Amino acid sequence: MFKLYNAALSKFAYSFFISILIIVAPVFSQKSMLDVTFGNGGKVVTPINDSSIANDIAIQPDGKIVVGGSTTEAGRNYFALVRYNIDGSLDNTFGTGGKAVTRLKDRSSISSIAIQADGKIVAGGSAYNLSTNVFIDSGYTIVRYNMDGIIDSLFGKNGITIVKMSNGTGGLKKLLIKPDGKILSAGSVDMPTFESIPALVQFNSNGSIDSSFGVNGKFEGYVNDVERITDMALAKDGKIFVAGILKNSGFVGDFALLRFLQNGSLDNTFGTNGVVKTDFNNNSLEDALGLAVLPDSSIVLAGHTYKRFPVAITSFALAKYRANGSLDSSFGLGGKVITPIDTIQAFATNLIVEPGGKLIVSGYTYNRAENFVVTRYHPNGKLDSTFGNNGIDTTDFAGFRDQAFASALQADGKIVLAGQAGSSDSKYSIALARYGLTALPLKLQGFTALKDGKNNLLQWHTSQEINVDRFEIQRSINGKDYSSIGKINGSLSNYTFTDNTPLSGTNYYRLK
After folding, report:
1. 141 with 107: CB under 8 angstroms?
2. Tens of pLDDT along 462-508?
3. Pairing of the two strands 507-511 and 18-22
4. Which of 46, 53, 122, 220 is a plausible cystine mate for 420, CB 3.0–4.6 Å?
């Protein structure tokens, strides 16, 4: 049951001495949406070795939270997985005390994780040794873990698959598990010419390369000056959407949206030779870091745009496209939205979509210190004023560098952000923040009272009820001390309740 309260009171007095006091909540505008039942006041900080960071997050069907990233030990970086219970405590049944560290090479880091239908965890990133030629040694790296955090030896070679890229340093950014169980990964290849090109690699469920995809399991190539690949999602028809940045010259760049066919070839019927370019501010740097395909087949990109004149400022930026790649003019201004976050710098790193179509965009802000930031937009691109402070909520951990790089939506609608929090200028820990219910569960259109002989007739009407179990009618003689006088189950929209034994004098009523 949702308990409804509100700090704003409405009182209607009638000549027959019935006064109505209505209290409905949560409060529409509040400074923080942090879920205080999670961790320490809504926040969790987990140190591992010297420093650590979370780059991705996934929610298991049982509600447990898995984050993947890296940890630094004696100047070397290793794969790091951490699993939490629903309340934010470490899950001691996973790895060692809730943590699983995999020492692959001198430099290795998890960029993306996904959970298979059987509960096994697939983690992807990159790895290379300091003593070798990075362009030769680095590749897309996949490790699969059993549910207890132990590496699954049945996957790849002793649980690990590393694919060398043909032209340079491979940096896997995103992986997902397709409906047929195959593992699709996307990222970029840093070329010896100091350029980057898009790269996709598909694996069979056992970790071997899927030779039916692209050229011998891979797509690597120049695509209209598209460089860094940042995110990926599947359409209902199995086509592959990829987000990234399209470089023009110097520090100037634009959002890039690419579409691939299921066989790994670029879909040249989409946009211009498979690519849609979106510019927000001329002569500015724009990064698209989040991608989502909506149920109606429209696509949303989220990231940030840097504007140098007249004042240098980095703002959240969103663009929405129809299925054919054209901008959706019903979204924001001509399909685009720019949102400054009350600071000089605001970097959007992730995008998720609620079941009702609202958009959750998260990242971090910078103004002396860095803080987690999460925003919520209506499907038309307007900020949702019922969330946080007019659609925006920020979270500080310890006054140092706090950056959110990933987000996930729980089954109950709560939002979890993951990233890093600094305990000093040089030491960082994995950090999580969870935010409470993201939708106002009730829209109350009216609450009235009528004198009906010796009885008092209460009536109210709702236009929206989300997870409302029942209404409790409460009465008071002084407007301070209330007691329950009845209950009515929810989901009717029009409600009537009769108080057959009203108190002498003034009666105050409220709904819970």
Report:
1. no
2. 877 766 778 899 998 887 788 899 999 887 788 999 999 999 888 88
3. parallel
4. 53
By the 8 A CB rule, do 366 and 321 touch? no
Query: Which residues are 31's β-sheet partners?
Result: none
pLDDT of residue 130: 67
Return the exposure string of 323-354: e unless at least 16 CB atoms fall within 10 Å of the residue's CB, then b: bebebbeebbeebbbbbebebebbbbbbbbbb
Asked if residue 304 has pLDDT above 60, the reply is yes
Identify any residues that bridge with 351 across adjacent strands, giving them in sequence order: 361
**pTM attached to this predicted model:** 0.79
Mean pLDDT of 434-439: 73
Is the Cα torsion angle 436, 439, 441, 442 positive or negative in sign? positive
**Above pLDDT 90, what percent of the chain?**
61
Q: Which residues contact 281 (CB under 8 A, 6 or more apart)?
A: 305, 306, 307
> CB–CB of 310/251 below 8 Å?
no
Which of 123-132, 253-262, 310-319, 415-424 bottoms out in mean pLDDT, i.e. has the lowest?
A: 123-132
The confidence score (pLDDT) of residue 23 equals 38
- Cα–Cα distance, 94 to 71 (Å, whole number): 17
Give Cα separations from 333 to 144, 301, 338 (angstroms).
43, 15, 9
Cα–Cα distance measured from residue 512 to residue 504, given in angstroms and rounded to the nearest whole number: 23
Are the C-beta atoms of 402 and 421 separated by less than 8 Å? yes
Give CA–CA dist 71/110, Å, rounded.
Answer: 10
User: Are the beta carbons of 223 and 283 closer than 8 angstroms?
Assistant: no
Question: For strand 252-260 and strand 275-278, is the pairing parallel, antiparallel, or unpaired?
Answer: antiparallel
- Dump strand ranges (E) for 209-308: 218-220, 226-234, 240-249, 252-260, 275-278, 285-293, 299-307
404 near 372, Cβ under 8 Å? yes
Spatial CB neighbours of 116, under 8 Å, sequence gap ≥ 6: 122, 177, 181
**Which amino acid, 390?**
N
Across 460-487, b (16+ Cβ under 10 Å) vs e yields bebeebeebeebbbbbbeeeeebeebee
**Is the model more confident about 108 or about 148?**
148
